[in-house]
Amino acid sequence: MAFYTDSIARLNELSSNRKERILCSESELPGILWVLLIGGSIISIAFTYLFGTANHTVHTLIVTMLSALLSFVLFMIFSLEHPYSGSISVKPSSFQRVIAAHSRE
């Protein structure tokens, strides 16, 4: 009887964890937040033109580095928004290793 109760408890926990992973994988940033992120990036880059320097090479370098940084941040947000797809994703082998580790216990 104790084995049956423990098995049911583990199955309920497994089901709950699976539902939570599915819910997390389907959630996305709202469109208005993307507008804010992209709009804020554009405004930040536009502000760099108000702080001109005598050396145009230095100014171009600053604008380029800020643009690259903001582009990378937006790319990372987009990539991490979909954790189970794309080149940066959680692979099935990760789950298989966790299952194998728990089965040895």
List the SSEs and their pairings:
Blueprint: H1 2-26, H2 31-48, H3 56-81, H4 92-104
Helix pairs in contact: 2-3
Word description of this protein:
By secondary structure, this protein is mainly α. The chain has one domain. The protein has four helices and no strands. The protein has helices at about 1-25, 30-50, 55-80, 90-105.
Name the shape in a single word.
Answer: elongated
What is the H/E order? HHHH
Secondary structural class: mainly alpha
Q: Specify the biggest β-sheet.
A: none
Query: Into which percent range does the helicity of residues fall?
Result: over 70%
Rg estimate, integer Å: 23 Å
Mean pLDDT: 83
Total number of helical segments? 4
| Spatial separation of the terminal alpha carbons | 21 Å
> Domains counted in the coordinates: how many?
1
Strand content: under 5%
The low-pLDDT segments are none
Total beta-strand segments: 0
